[in-house]
Write a structure and sequence with these properties.
alpha+beta; Aminopeptidase; six-stranded mixed β-sheet; three-stranded antiparallel β-sheet
């Protein structure tokens, strides 16, 4: 068998030329592909560098200068500006608007530079496979670099909308005796309720120099609340908030509704209802109330859920709901639904126990609300807050309050509850209330001693006047925890509340509290 004939000389030369041309074409294709990848990659690392290398020097210089300037500015801000100052700037609407515009601009500009770098790589000169790879890589990288700026702009938009919708523009209140006093109200205007009635009434007083917070709790069923001397309400009720008719219409938590019905007595930027409650608390405690924050309790669960829940150490079994369920003692992670039940349930407990649990939940919420948690859940938190928080805090004072909140966050909360046996809600000793409030805020007493009555008579037995104060209802005919389908609904009446709650903080492992320790949280729970 003979060997195959070799191609003739001309044919062999032609084959070699075609092979050489194909190799050169492959190498050229590989170089163009590498160049395209390099230009796009450089645009990701240093925006404008691709344009500079490709000959578009003016465009490249401008992009590189802007990118370098922004990186330098961000580094200097992170290095030189304290976190509390940055947090204060983050609540200024004009700055949030400017930041949003810059963020969107950066996202569009950077993505455009990457697309332009793809164009400069001359995609028509690539084969189909490499063209598809470059299109996919360009789109992916453009999305990758622009996404953080779009997310930042979205956060800025949410923060701007929350600040503008929640906080009015108004006059900044000046601290009194070095303290800023903010009234926290848990309000409930659900079905079957007449008007708005605060279910929990707590005053937070913060030392503006040190950030040390104190919390003073008043029972919602306090009778004969005082108003500031010289105010129209004080002229109308010189002996306290009282009158003919149903006694429940003259409790402390009825002042909001009364103010709405009699706006001529409560002229103020906050509105007649909130102004009435602020004045009642101010006159009762003997200290000014600068701002108020009212939280819709039905929406309170949304805030808890938005930050991922709260962790509490429950020391006493608590019934929850109407199906025999209970919250077991021990370390519990509560979502918004169960936290609201825990704060408001009255099954087998008193109004004063509820006050202590509510104070505990507030403390746990403050501990959980650290900057990383707030940032991670910011959008949900902002959306939840807009729909269920009402306040008269002016946006002009937000920067100062953010700084104050950061100071107060890790400080221990000293607290004082005006409940039996310290006072009798049906016939309170207002001189004693003002005295104990002043002593607490001036640091003249520790809270453990403040929780005890001045003597063994009068309010010590939890009764007063006609004795109705001892049951904790103070003549309150309404069921404040009622409501169809509401986790705060209560199956039982609010009776058997004459016992005074324990005032000292529970031990780490749920042991009996030490009576010599200052009061911080209820013996019913503590927060970790």
């Amino acid at each position: 068998m003979g060997t195959p004939a070799r191609p003739s000389g001309p044919r062999r030369a032609a084959t070699q030329r075609r092979t050489t041309a194909a190799l050169r074409a492959e190498r050229a294709e590989a170089r163009r592909f590498r160049r395209s990848l390099t230009l796009v990659g450089l645009s990701v690392v240093a925006p404008g560098s691709a344009q500079f290398i490709a000959g578009h020097r003016k465009t490249g210089k401008i992009a590189l200068a802007v990118a370098g300037g922004l990186v330098t500015l961000a580094a200097l801000i992170a290095w030189l500006v304290p976190m509390q100052d940055l947090a204060g700037l983050a609540v200024k609407p004009w700055l949030l608007t400017g930041f949003k515009i810059i963020a969107f601009g950066m996202a569009i500009a950077w993505a455009a530079l990457i697309v332009d770098a793809w164009r400069l790589g001359h995609p028509p000169g690539l084969n189909q496979k490499h063209r598809l790879i470059m299109v996919g890589a360009t789109i992916a990288l453009a999305g990758l670099v622009s996404t953080p700026f779009v997310v930042a702009a979205r956060y800025a938009t949410a923060a701007h909308d929350a600040v503008v919708e929640m906080f009015p523009s108004g006059e900044v209140a000046a601290a009194s005796d070095g303290r800023l006093n903010i009234l926290l109200l848990g309000v409930d205007a659900g079905d079957g309720r007449v008007g708005v009635r605060p279910d929990s009434i707590n005053l937070v007083s913060v030392d503006v120099r040190t950030g040390e917070p104190s919390m003073i709790s008043l029972p919602r069923n306090l009778e004969k609340a005082r108003f500031p001397p010289g105010s129209p309400a004080d002229d109308e009720f010189p002996r306290g908030f009282d009158g003919d008719g149903d006694r429940s219409d003259y409790l402390l938590n009825a002042t909001w509704t009364y103010g709405e019905e009699h706006p001529e007595l409560f002229d103020g930027a906050s509105g007649p209802g909130p102004t009435a409650v602020k004045q009642a608390v101010e006159g009762t405690l003997g200290i000014p109330v600068h701002y108020y924050v009212a939280v819709d309790l039905d929406g309170f669960r949304d805030i808890i859920d938005a930050i991922g829940g709260v962790t509490l150490r429950v020391n006493e079994e608590l019934p929850i709901g109407d199906k025999g369920r209970v919250l077991e003692p021990g370390l519990q992670e509560l979502d918004g639904y169960h936290a609201l039940w825990y704060a408001r349930s009255r099954e087998g407990s008193s109004d004063y126990d509820r006050m202590a649990r509510q104070r505990c939940v507030i403390g746990a919420l403050m501990r959980e609300a650290d900057p990383p948690t707030l940032l991670a859940n910011f959008l949900d938190l902002a959306e939840a807050s807009k729909s269920m928080i009402t306040t008269d805090i002016p946006r002009e004072d937000l920067s100062n309050l953010v700084d104050l909140a950061l100071k107060a966050k890790d400080a221990e909360i000293t607290a004082l509850q005006f409940v039996p046996p310290l006072i009798a809600p049906a016939d309170p000793d207002f001189d004693l209330i003002a005295e104990r409030t002043s002593d607490l805020l001036n640091g003249d007493i520790d809270v453990a001693s403040a929780a005890q009555p001045a003597d063994d008579s009068g309010a010590a037995d939890g009764s007063g006047g006609d004795g109705s104060g001892g049951d904790g209802s103070g003549g309150d005919a309404e069921d404040d925890a009622s409501g169809e389908g509401d986790p705060a609904a209560d199956d039982g009446d609010d009776d058997s509340v004459g016992e005074a709650p324990a005032y000292d903080e529970a031990g780490e492992d749920g042991d009996a509290p030490n009576a010599s320790e200052p009061v911080e949280v209820s013996s019913a729970c503590s927060y970790e």
